[in-house]
Amino acid sequence: MTARHADGCLVVRLREGDLDALGELYEQYHNLVFRTALAITRDEGAAEDILQEAFLRVYTYADKIDDTVPLGPWLYRVTVNLAYSWTNRLKRWWNSVQDTLDRLTLSVQPHPEAMAEEQEWRQALQQAIDALSPRHRVVIILHYLEGLSLKEISYVIDVPEGTVKSRLHYARESLRKSVLEQRRRVVPEVAYDFT
Amino acid sequence: MTLHRYIAEGQATDELDGLIQWALHESVEGAAPSTHAWERVLQDVERLAALRRARIRSIPDQVLGAAVACLARVDAFFPALAAPSVPRDECITWGDDMGWMRILDQHRQIMPLVC
């Protein structure tokens, strides 16, 4: 028999209707869910809606959750799926594309005030990340922000490890090109390559 | 945290990886759900729990209704069973209830056929 994980004990209490157990799980995981949802959707309101829905699902599916493993990977999976659904809704997706286009247009126009170098870098990278397709963006976020391994990402998004590896490679290459372009723009004479 | 400090502290082994990590961390830095988020989760959960409790309470009636409907379909001679005219908790006065009178009447007609 497999030993029950500490999260599993809370899940068992939740199955018995103990809402304090849900509170403890919320305390432990709400930042993880909110941060991941925010990084994918880039919208605080949406991230909060996803947070609510994710914990409602913990309650709804408490009977089906494996109590022998930590809850984190399952929650990542739910969060990513909810964020995908949010992003895929046509209107919001179109708004996001419009926002990206607006930002890109803005970035090629001469800025009236000199922006701080770091701010510019962050903005450029964030735009490049936003411009990735949702499936590439999710892999980048889970790997670089959440520090998940290829195997863990494979479980979360339910695709083979090889697919995760190729998506990560593609996304990283795409970001590398964007960073190089940014570097050429900021410092035209210094345009060395990355590893 | 600044980019230079991030790289200097060796939080990433590669410059590009460092840039990506830094930009992503910066994009969510300090972001947190509102203090009301948990209250809303709890409200949703309590609403769902109440709905579940109500559903569990209504199961015996549903089962009884389904069984009666099934019996009525199987035995077309006793349609009165599907819609009992007397509330379940009340005593039946045989002579006054038209439903049971109909059943007895049908029974009287069937008996010669089966015997």
Keywords:
A: 195 residues; Rna Polymerase Sigma Factor, Chain: A; Arc Repressor Mutant, subunit A; 2 domains; B: 115 residues
How do the strands and helices of this protein lay out in sequence?
The complex is a heterodimer of chains A (195) and B (115).
Chain A: H1 6-15, H2 19-41, H3 44-60, H4 72-88, H5 90-108, H6 117-131, H7 134-145, H8 150-157, H9 161-186
Chain B: H1 3-8, H2 15-28, H3 37-74, H4 98-114
Can you characterise this structure?
The complex is a heterodimer of chains A (195) and B (115). Chain A has helices spanning 6-15, 19-41, 44-60, 72-88, 90-108, 117-131, 134-145, 150-157, 161-186. Chain A has 195 residues and is mainly alpha-helical. Chain A folds into two domains: 6-87, RNA polymerase sigma factor, region 2, helix turn helix motif (Rna Polymerase Sigma Factor, Chain: A, Orthogonal Bundle); 90-186, Winged helix-like DNA-binding domain superfamily/Winged helix DNA-binding domain (Arc Repressor Mutant, subunit A). In chain A, helix 3 crosses helix 4 and helix 4 crosses helix 8. Chain A starts with 5 loop residues before the first helix and ends in a 9-residue tail after the last helix. Helices cover 65% and strands 0% of the residues of chain B. Chain B has three domains: 1-31, no CATH class; 34-74; 76-115, no CATH class. Chain B has 115 residues and is mostly helical. Chain B has four helices and no strands. The interface between A and B is medium-sized, with 37 and 30 residues.
User: What percentage of amino acids of chain B are in beta strands?
Assistant: under 5%
For the record, what CATH class of the largest domain in chain A applies? Mainly Alpha
Mean pLDDT of chain A: 84
Total number of domains of chain A? 2
CATH architecture of the largest domain in chain A: Orthogonal Bundle
Low-confidence stretches of chain A: none
Largest inter-chain contact set: A-B, 37 and 30 residues
Largest sheet of chain B: none
Count of helical stretches of chain B: 4
**Biggest sheet layout of chain A:** none
Please give the count of helices of chain A: 9
- Fraction in helix of chain B: 55-70%
What is the fold-level CATH name, i.e. the topology of the largest domain in chain A? Arc Repressor Mutant, subunit A
Q: Mind telling me the CATH superfamily name of the largest domain in chain A?
A: Winged helix-like DNA-binding domain superfamily/Winged helix DNA-binding domain
- Domain count of chain B: 3
Oligomer: heterodimer
**Counted beta strands of chain B:** 0
- Spans of chain B with pLDDT under 50 lasting ≥5 residues? 79-87
Q: What class would the helix/strand composition of chain A place it in? A: mainly alpha
Question: Based on CA inertia axes, which overall geometry of chain B fits?
Answer: rod-shaped
* End-to-end distance of chain B: 96 Å
